[in-house]
Amino acid sequence: MKKYLIIGNSTAAIGCIEGIRSADKDGEITVVSKEDRHTYCRPLISYYLEGKTDLERIKYRPDSFYEENGVKVLFGISAEKIDSEKKSVTLDNGSVLPYDELCVAAGSSPFVPPADGFEKVKNKLCFTTLDDALALEKITDKNSRVLIIGAGLIGLKCAEGLFERVKKITVCDLADRVLSTILDKESSVMVEKRLEENGIELVLNDCAVRYEANKAFMKSGKEIEFDVLVTAVGVRPNAKLVSDAGGKCGRAITVDEHMKTSLESVYAAGDCTESVDISDGSTKVMALLPNAYMQGFCAGVNMAGKEQVFDNAIPMNSIGFFGVHIMTAGSRPQESEGAYVCGEKDEDALKKLYIKDNRLVGFILIGKTERAGIYTGMIRNKTDIASVDFERLQKCADLSAFSKQWRKEKLGGVLQ
To answer: Which residues are CB-contacts of 401 (< 8 A; sequence separation ≥ 6)?
Structure first.
């Protein structure tokens, strides 16, 4: 009977468990969970603050999940060392766990930018875990002034989650626009407008260089007073376990299409890995829930002796702020790279489709995001735009733009 060991207890780990059980119903599965709580959906922590979900509904799987899948979970324990030759993992409580197959699904950790006086700030935290959300709930009230460092996905969802709980929210970022990693300037402006309409103060192209107990001194000379400080600049992949064991790593853990690392019988999945983005061929970290689950499932299947590949990863984001819905996927090549952009825009909606080498390689949708999966599928499948009615697709994501034969093969039924 195989012994499976999984480091981590979030999306990729759950995918790994279900991948293993799809091929091996009897093997022993042990999960090492740094957090002392049942698996939950991290993207929902801002919705918990908003009151749109609760501690039961935020769970990623039901309470019975571990028992039904024969999983032993070691809560509140961290892995400290992998010995790939002895096939064992040393934990922070001193115990050593043997394994036949290991999956590192250790996720990522928040990056906190250095600044003088940061240690003097009493009420400071990050916003990546449920414990962070619970702490924010505890230390904020209707009179609180909150300063959020970072205008990316994490920082802005934190702002939305706190919106009706506090008196004032200020979001600052070194970039000249919000969501700079997924949006261009034109689309960022639309989001900035909605944020400001809801009372969020934006301080862009600026950063904190020094703190006092309740004041941030910005590079521009601006001073911002606050009661609570949230750092949401970004995260770094937890790759140290594998790199210390001699495994190949770039910005994150390097894996092949089977999710295998360079270490024997060691796999990795989720935010701690880097993958090939098929939209542009680059290798990058794509810290996204759907990718994490699919990577984990793929790793689990291969750990159990079957074969599966995950070779169609693309960056994707589906998110909303104060009623503005945003979807992005793929890459945004420039004209100098032989690409062009098409689409349309009005006061409340924007669509940008990025075309290169006669295929759709990326998109930005704001406002009207219906049927965006059609565009995503074209990117994943590397669909030649000459094979579809692309003029129609520019106006609306519609399956009628595809050939009758394609629709028959993909959808079945009677051709129309």
So the answer is: 388, 389, 390, 392, 393
